[in-house]
Design brief:
The chain has 157 residues and is mainly alpha-helical. It is built from five helices and three strands; from the N terminus they run ββααααβα. The protein has a three-stranded antiparallel beta sheet with strand order 1-2-3. A hairpin with a 4-residue loop joins strand 1 and strand 2 (8-10). Helix 1 (16-33) runs antiparallel to helix 4, helix 3 (57-68) packs antiparallel against helix 4 (78-94) and helix 3 packs antiparallel against helix 5 (118-152). The two termini are 20 Å apart.
Length: 157
């Protein structure tokens, strides 16, 4: 067992579970997403707050794995949902987080302004889906980098 932070330990230090299960599903998700390089370059608030810094690797992976579950609501395909669950549940299984981890809830957005027409509403939904997929791709990349950092025992991500 590899001690990665004060709150979590990482099991499977040799990487068998990661390479044979999680990495395959991460790559499958990348293939399903297929959004190219047209994503905005700005970092999301989640990735600004949570990083794979030294001694924080396990907590980053824990929070990222929990965040992945939110993408099940997108209902892209059964294959997508299956691999999303494999990565999320597989990561949580390999992490042994003993302390109580506090997850902050996102602040309420309040009452939104009514949309004047259905076309505009449809465009906004498409844009949100696109942004969500861009965030998901970036999150998966960061998870991959973090797992690789842990497995090679490097100090830099």
């Amino acid at each position: 067992m590899f001690h990665a932070s004060s709150d979590c330990d990482i099991e499977g230090r040799k990487g068998n579970e990661y390479e044979k299960v999680l990495m395959i599903s991460i790559n499958r998700l990348d293939n399903v997403i297929e959004i190219g390089s047209n994503c905005p370059t700005n970092e999301s608030n989640f990735l600004k707050k949570h990083s794979c810094d030294d001694n924080k690797e396990a907590m980053f992976l824990y929070r990222a794995a929990r965040k992945l579950k939110q993408f099940l609501k997108m209902n892209i395909s059964e294959d997508f949902n299956l691999h999303l669950l494999i990565v999320s549940e597989g990561t949580l299984k390999l992490l042994n987080c003993t302390g109580k981890v506090k997850e902050r809830k996102a602040p309420s957005q309040g009452e939104g302004q009514p949309i004047k027409n259905l076309e505009e509403n449809k465009l906004l939904k498409e844009q949100k889906k696109w942004n969500d997929l861009c965030f998901l791709r970036r999150l998966l990349e960061k998870m991959k980098t973090c797992w690789n950092k842990i497995l090679r025992g490097a100090k830099d991500p």
